[in-house]
């Protein structure tokens, strides 16, 4: 699949989209339909992102294939939810097919920027994931099973969708740790999730700031995330030298972006403001130093958003961020990135009015009117 390299962090031999899922699709029709729907939807999205009119047959093909996949899935979900057994009356193979198919449909909704649809599918995937984890006889001795990799990726989707919805608890809560999921950037995602949860705790408690103990622990964790990523990147057999260089640069990009997110959630401490300025300068330096974006473009939406929130009063930096985001969209599809740019433009407009609004506050306002953004 051409789309496969964009769907996992790094396109290695462990990319489940390139290897495991196509093999499963040969045996399970619903997985096959969902996989083909994902490919058709992505192709239509890419044509649109590159200012080309998608051929109508791609769009109708996507809807038809998705409908074909949902047919057997509906019956299986009913069996799953109307039986006291952890996985209803389904066999292990049926439950596996259900999990993989629904995961692909979640991915389809995200790739095509159809928020209500992927959130609906995510609720179903959440129930299926918990059924898999609760069924003792489906637990494999090998922690690197495709099912746990899928659940880990679904957990990451939850992290990216919760950042702009801090004012409310998530509709689902998946947590899993498995060797296969713990790639170079997994620790960063875990920390981003933890920071978001702390911000949510502040919102619903009388304590309006992150404790010194939590703050110190998070600073250490962010440094440890950079160390882990640096070590693991060296062990990966990249297909090109340029890809290795780009992912090595991304270690520092994610480090600086995560630091900035932490400082902004933490508050307005003067020392933090100074540290945030330093991180901001390093982040822009790292982003400007990436000359080969192709291998990492699908990973750059988050750091570009964070960098964009730090350039209220610099037109040149705003132009740079918008240019890079458009490059990302052309290379890897639209997803929810046009709306991310909409958020940034609105934020920049407030800066020009000399009333700088924290982007997290603005994201909350979007969420309150039912317009949350998925940062992917």
TrEMBL record:
It is found in: Nucleus. It comes from the Eukaryota. InterPro entries: Fun_TF. Keywords: Nucleus. Transmembrane segments: none annotated. The keyword Nucleus applies. Its main location: nucleus. GO terms for cellular component: nucleus. It holds the Pfam family Fungal_trans_2. PANTHER family: TRANSCRIPTIONAL ACTIVATOR PROTEIN UGA3, ZN(II)2CYS6 TRANSCRIPTION FACTOR (EUROFUNG). This is Transcription factor domain-containing protein.
